[in-house]
Amino acid sequence: MTSDGGPGPSAPHTVNILVTAGPTREPLDPVRFISNRSSGKMGYELAAAFAHAGHMVLLLSGPTALDVPDGIDFLPVETAAEMHAAVSHHIGSMDIAIFAAAVADYTPAAIAPQKLKKSADTLTLELVKTSDILGSARTVFGFTGTLVGFAAETENLEANARGKLTRKGCDLVVANDVSKPGIGFDSNHNEVLLVYPNHNEALPLASKHDLAHQLVQAILELHLSQRL
Ligand code: CTP
What distance in Å separates the CA atoms of residue 143 and residue 97, rounded to the nearest whole number? Predict the structure, then answer.
């Protein structure tokens, strides 16, 4: 890195990194969708920080209000199915894949072709499970690079994150407690627990910008240790 904070002439070893970010939108009819409170900030900060360190980044993102960071490849998607297809297409050429997106776990069983009209006092929606994109990385897409998942939890942070680490074949899960006020979803700040197969490391409260730079260090170290 140069003294003005700009990127150095070249990274010692340039790696290809895929980052998923933001929420997905699952349409109900032409004007309505099911989504969640993810802002995409953490994923976008990570993509920017990797690019700043001289690496090649492909950011696959659901809809957000954020500007696309400079110096990255960007592919916008809407639904969990579109994100799944995009990851399946691109993950084979990646060294590191980071799944920061808040992907909908369920999607409407059918999309009404016309706007749903108000009628009865109650309305029951039928939802079907989406495919687990991170959970498909090893088993379906055959990804052998460094795999990083995220876990947003409201209870049992470490145990839930460790379950995801094992279940989804990750090398690292970045866990955060979304029940704590002032961090996580809409916030510019976060506090995370890095859950590795054999140990944990807590990264204390910091801006998502600063945290992204710490995560880049941790993920690159992990990647290099796996290449030895
Ligand atoms: N994820 C994914 N595809 C999905 C659901 C989740 O790629 N359909 C990824 C997220 O990007 C995140 C990780 O899996 O990196 C954990 O997501 P989370 O929603 O916390 O996990 P789930 O497996 O959906 O478990 P639960 O909602 O029951 O906690």
Answer: 9
